[in-house]
Design goal:
Layout lengths: L2 H4 L7 E2 L4 H10 L4 E5 L5 E6 L17 H7 L1 H12 L3 H4 L7 E2 L4 H11 L3 E6 L2 E7 H11 L10 H14 L9 E5 L2 E5 L1 E2 L2 H12 L6 E4 L2 E3 L6 E3 L2 E2 L1
Parallel strand pairs: 1-2, 4-5, 8-10, 9-11
Antiparallel strand pairs: 2-3, 5-6, 7-8, 11-12, 12-13
């Protein structure tokens, strides 16, 4: 899944020549927590968010420091804080180093950027032109669509077992376990041992997600390599 498949093409933007009051009104009007900032050619030049308006002189939330802290910070830092709290132009408060992707970027890359930079939205570009935006909500909508139950498939017990075993073999963490998969009438029985409780849970989910499976009976147990004790789904085996 790529950015072009999940982006919102109708993006509310604000020009870099706009006032901060204009940006705030747009955010309130459209119930948005951030806006891409564009130049006269609709090229992305920045992004402005709610956080950029927290320290404002109009509402008395500008930063205040003791005399000692002011001395440590220096005149330049204090002047910049005054500038940010009093400027009336979006271009002065926006973030210029914008995290953005091209429209063929994979959804996994978008999520990685969101996690790395702790952001809620990623603008999508075609070249240097803004063509859309992907927010966390867009990813949730994509998940909701992808997670719709697939039509039931009448796979045989053999094909169901083969699918589970193949998926298990594709996982690097599954190489060391001795899980045995038995399928009868669409019911999957999991037997054997694993070396980590999390592997047992993952194998169970793997079976549950395999098309044609009616039910999963989990008889796996995991062995603590330190103590040698064996644990089943409900405790000590």
């Amino acid at each position: 899944m790529q950015a072009r498949d999940i982006l919102q093409p109708r993006v509310v933007t604000v020009p870099d020549s706009a006032t901060v009051q204009t940006a705030v009104r747009l955010m309130l009007q459209h119930h948005l927590s951030g806006l891409p900032v564009v130049d006269g050619n609709h090229r992305l030049v920045g992004i402005v968010t709610e956080g950029d308006f927290l320290r404002r002189a109009e509402i008395g939330t500008q930063r205040r420091h003791s005399r000692w802290v002011e001395f440590v910070l220096g005149a330049g830092r204090l002047a910049d804080e005054y500038y940010q709290a009093h400027t009336r132009h979006v271009r002065d408060v926006m973030t210029r180093d914008v995290v953005a992707v091209q429209e063929n970027a994979e959804a996994a890359e978008i999520v990685r950027l969101m996690e790395k930079h702790r952001i809620k939205r990623v603008p999508v570009l075609r070249g240097d032109a803004l063509v859309g935006i992907v927010s966390r909500a867009d990813l949730l909508r994509a998940f909701a669509h992808a997670a719709r139950p697939a039509p039931a498939t009448p796979g045989t017990d053999a094909t169901i077992r083969a699918a589970i075993v193949a998926e298990m073999n594709r996982q690097t963490w599954g190489a060391g376990n001795t899980a045995n998969v038995v399928v009868h009438d669409g019911i999957v029985e999991l037997h054997g041992a694993v070396l980590d409780e999390r592997e047992r849970l993952a194998i169970r989910v793997m079976a549950e997600n395999t098309p044609g499976v009616k039910k999963v009976e989990d008889h796996l147990f995991w062995v603590d390599v330190v103590s040698g004790m064996a644990f089943g789904p409900t405790g000590v085996a």
